[in-house]
Give the backbone structure.
Amino acid sequence: MQKIKGTLIPIGGNEDKGLEDNEMHTLEFIDEGILYHVVKEAGGVNSKIVVIPTASSIPKEVGDSYLSAFKTLGCNDVTVLDIRSKEDSEKQESISLIKSADCIMFSGGNQSKITDKIGGTTIHDILVERYKNNEGFVIAGTSAGAMAMSNEMIAGGSAAESFIKGAVAMYRGLSLIPSLIIDTHFIKRGRFGRQSEAIAKHPDLVGFGLAEDTGLIIKNGNDCTVIGSGMVIVFDGSKLTHNNEKILQEGTPMTMANLTVHVLSNGDQYNIKNRKVSVLPIEAPFI
C-alpha cells in the first residue's frame, strides 16, 4: 500500500480568521488557531497558499476574508483561485497554481459545487497526485471544503429528521481520503443523526463530526490529531451487531446496536486503520 506523503486538514467551519469578535473561540489566533496550524504544516509564512472559494455563493468576499486572515498571520504569497466551472479547472493558470502551491485551502459553502466543478478535471488529478506523492503538501478545507475530501460525501440532510432512513443525502466527493465520512458544524447544527445514518450505510468507514473552529491534521492518510477550540465526534461502525439500514423503507426510524462513539478535543489523536484513540493525559486539578 502506497504511503501518503501529503497532509489533509479538514475543519468544521467558522474557524477564527482574526477578523471579528471571537468570543466563541478560546485559542489565540496567531499562535494556536486553526489557520496557524494550516500555515505551519504548509512550511510557514513563506509558503505559497492558494484559496479556492468554489463552494461559496459569495466567492469574492470569502476569498478576501482569507487573504486578510493569512496576511494577519504573516503570509506573503496567498492567491485566490476563483473556479466557477469545469472549464476554469482546465485553464493553464489554474493548473499552474495547483502545481506550484504548498497549500490549497477550500472554503465553505455547498460541497457539491466543489465536486461538480473540480471533480474529474485536470486540477483534481493533480491534487490527488500531489497529496499522495509530495511531502509537506497540504490540502485544507473548511465546512464544505472538509466534507468534499472523502469519497462517500454527505451532500445534505435534515437534522430534524435524525435517525430516519433517508435523512442524509450522499454524493461522490474528491476521494482524497476514502476511509472517512466527514460532517461539519456538527455540534451547533445537531448532525449526530445524519452522520449515524451515513455510517449505517457505510459501516466499514469512519465518521468524523467536526465542531466549528475545530479540525484534524491527518498525516499518512491515517494519523489524526485534533486542533482547535471544540470537539471531534468519531463514529466507528465496525462492531455493529444490528444495523437495519439496508432493509428499511425511507422515512422509517433506524436501529443501530454497538455503534462506537468517541469525543475528542485539542491534542487528542486517532488512528484510522487501527481505530484507536490516544488522548492527552488528564492533569490533576490545581488546589
